[in-house]
Amino acid sequence: MNIGIKSLGCPKNLVDSEVICGKLLEKGHSISGEVENSDIAIINTCSFIEDAVEESISEIMNLVKLKNEGKIKHIIVAGCLPQRYIKDKIDRELPEIDAFTGVSELLEIDEIIQKILQNNKVCKVREKPDYLYNHNTPRILLTPGHYAYVKIAEGCDNRCTYCMIPTLRGPYRSRKMEDIIEEVKNLSENKLLREIILIAQDTTLYGYDIYGEYKLAELLKQLSLLKIDSLKWIRVLYTHPAHYFEELIEVMANYPKICPYLDIPLQHINDKILKRMNRKISRDEIKKIIDKCRKILPDLVLRTTCIVGFPEETEKDFKELLDYIQEVRFDKLGAFTYSREKGTPAYHYSHQVSAKTKNQRMESLMLAQQKISKEKGLACLGKIKEIIIDEIVDSKEWPTIGRSITDAPEIDGKVFVSSNKVNIGEFVKVKIIDSSEYDLYGELI
């Protein structure tokens, strides 16, 4: 059976797609990243915010078009979109779809396929998500072989008022530390593995549900002590500022394999907005965390994300956020306009901000960050940086694309190199000779 798979959304969703592929391969199916001309096309969807829903629907309609043209025989829509909307009877609105399946049915994919091959329609979405994969779960990496994501927990208990994740993914549930360590060992059997990236809806909450205390620092320490020669970088994404503790930064400072890189989404800095978001942290507490992080680890790279246009955000509130971004000068910053999602408490908030105002604030914020990023890039000119090679492309001027330790794959900047005499997954040193707002350009040393 020839099966094509398309994965949308974040790396957490990508891991789910990798589990689906692992199960399919275990059952003897052939898998491709190309959905056209496949017996079955599987699309693993995202529905976190309105833009993600629109992208998912658009990609589904592309598959429907291919099916109508005879280029696809069957379509399975999996993941967050069915999880969110199956009660709204989307299966009736999309009769061309052969199966809908939620976020907890990953390992049932072959059974679902067998049913649709017998011309049965399938709609299987567990109302309360509870699935959590482990190191024995079959999994096929969809990333390049030199880096891999490791999901250390699933679900969320934070209940931010703008967020659908607890509804879509269920309560927070950590994997046992021994299980995660075994998975990293399994992944390292691929001798090309150079980097693992720990992910969860909130990595700093890791362990609290099963050990009664935060265990991310201990997990990082144990992973760093593994005798895996090929593994050079351990990176952490999606940390929540309300769950920070000093030991985490100290471990990061004392174990060289742990990247001095923190993804710490603040969302806002104004106390009124933070409270309405239910972020469980204040501006003063955020400032203390940032100051402590930079004191313990002066070379720390800080990434954050912000939401502009949250209900009741005034021009003064936004100006406070903008001034703070310019004061702290984050190394990396992403921003979103607030997306009003049915099923979240903030959907019912008064004083919703207009789309025009949200977009204007977004543009102002990103222009300010663009200036900061450009200045940080210029400061790198003439410096020597070690990078990992991610791609070799068809370009005469910049045929090689890599990343430094300060950049996570797919979300941060790149380092373009003028030589192609390298291998994917190799660490090399380059001299930086040029920069743009977000990327660097270098010569191979």
Describe this structure in words.
The protein is α/β, with parallel strands linked by helices and 445 residues long. The chain folds into three domains: 2-124, Rossmann fold (3-Layer(aba) Sandwich), CATH 3.40.50.12160; 147-378, pyruvate-formate lyase- activating enzyme (Alpha-Beta Horseshoe); 384-444, Nucleic acid-binding proteins (OB fold (Dihydrolipoamide Acetyltransferase, E2P)). The chain has helices at 11-26, 50-68, 80-85, 90-93, 109-117, 165-169, 177-187, 208-211, 216-224, 246-254, 271-277, 283-296, 315-328, 355-378, and strands at 2-7, 30-32, 38-45, 72-79, 99-101, 122-124, 147-151, 153-154, 173-174, 195-199, 233-236, 258-263, 301-308, 332-337, 384-392, 400-404, 415-417, 427-435, 440-444. The protein has a six-stranded parallel β-sheet, sandwiched between helices. A six-stranded parallel β-sheet has the order 7-10-11-12-13-14. Helix 13 (315-328) runs parallel beside helix 14 (355-378). The longest helix is centred in the last third of the chain and has 24 residues, at 355-378. The protein is globular, with a radius of gyration of 22 Å. The model has no long low-confidence stretch (mean pLDDT 95).
